[in-house]
């Protein structure tokens, strides 16, 4: 009878307590849970179904970028008024944007791009458009957009090392 009573109490306690999220990765000052990964999945476009590994990597990257944004006190108007993972996601984007601005475009890159891709910059009269401030800005943005995937991966690797992030296996971290 006592065992039955203990089992009922344990069942009631288990049913009444919220489910705990599984820890998927952790490091110094960072913990990535299954709840974080589920929130990240909700942000992915409906037509895109990432693999579990890609989704976990994206979640860890988002958490790392947000952590570093917090550490470096990166201003982020996009995060104001947001909570939970939406806040984390916005903060991570602010971090990436801030870092790309800091890294910038190498001197001479805009002029090189302009010379190599002159067919993109032909005016209505058939002659090349002059490399003015507006065109320089357009080219600079193109170059930065092209850098994003590589830069994102490099930052992810750098921060994963900095915060000693380890992915947890079935046996734990």
Short description:
By secondary structure, this protein is mainly alpha-helical.
Which helices and strands appear, and what pairs or packs with what?
Elements: H1 2-16, E1 23-27, E2 30-33, H2 34-43, H3 52-71, H4 84-103, H5 109-116, H6 133-162, E3 166-167
Antiparallel strand pairs: 1-2, 1-3
Structurally, the number of domains stands at 1
Low-confidence stretches: 1-18
Helix content: 55-70%
Q: What is the CATH-assigned architecture?
A: Orthogonal Bundle
Strand order of the largest sheet: 2-1-3
In percent terms, what proportion of residues is strand?
5-15%
Q: What is the CATH class name?
A: Mainly Alpha
- Continuous helix count: 6
Radius of gyration: 23 Å
Walk me through this protein's architecture.
The structure is a single chain. Helices cover 60% and strands 6% of the residues. The protein has a three-stranded antiparallel beta sheet with strand order 2-1-3. The protein is mainly alpha-helical and 173 residues long. The protein contains six helices and three strands; from the N terminus they run H-E-E-H-H-H-H-H-E. The chain has a single domain (2-167), classed as Orthogonal Bundle (Triger factor/SurA peptide-binding fold). Strand 1 and strand 2 form a beta hairpin. The model is unreliable at 1-18 (pLDDT under 50). The protein starts with a helix and ends in a 6-residue tail after the last strand. It is elongated and about 65 Å long. Helix 2 (34-43) crosses helix 3 (52-71), helix 3 (52-71) packs across helix 6 and helix 5 (109-116) crosses helix 6 (133-162).
